[in-house]
Amino acid sequence: MEHALESNFGVTEAQAVPSALDDIETLMQVHRTRILRFVMLSIRDADAAASITQDCFLKAYRYRAQFRGECAISTWLIRIAYRLICDHTRTERFRFWKRVQANAVDAQEMANSLPQGGSSPERHAIAQQQVQAVFASLEHLSDRQRAVFTLHFIDEMTADEIATSLTIPVSTVKTHLYRSIAKMRKVLGAQV
Known about the structure:
The protein is an all-alpha fold. The longest helix has 20 residues.
């Protein structure tokens, strides 16, 4: 079977995967936005998010030989980022800044990126308010619930992909997703 996977150069797919990780610039170009968005929504501190994102890529590059190819590179990077976020939140020094800058995500900027094709200014304003309400209500979720919620609804990952990324069972992902949706509905009420 391994012979069937060999390319014209005699390299198997398993051997070829680390080569994709060798070019850190391309790796960052392809995955940086997704990783930064995930980290930003998890910790809500722009400076720390940028630092964690950079650390994520440095760690991926440093340990690229350990990538087994059992999941997508993006899933592996999300897992690294999630572990760095956990380390970040455990550190007392960063807890202070998390409280000080609890809402570093600019909901107005996110709301402005909504498509405006043919919508009235009134509808656009309502949509902006709804986006702001959703991002503000993320604060009411636990760290794990927020991670599952953002990976599912913003990064559009499946429960299986989230489970692989966060190294938790699929049933736990579904539980966190159910509870986060219930909590979001309760917090948002009739706002959205």
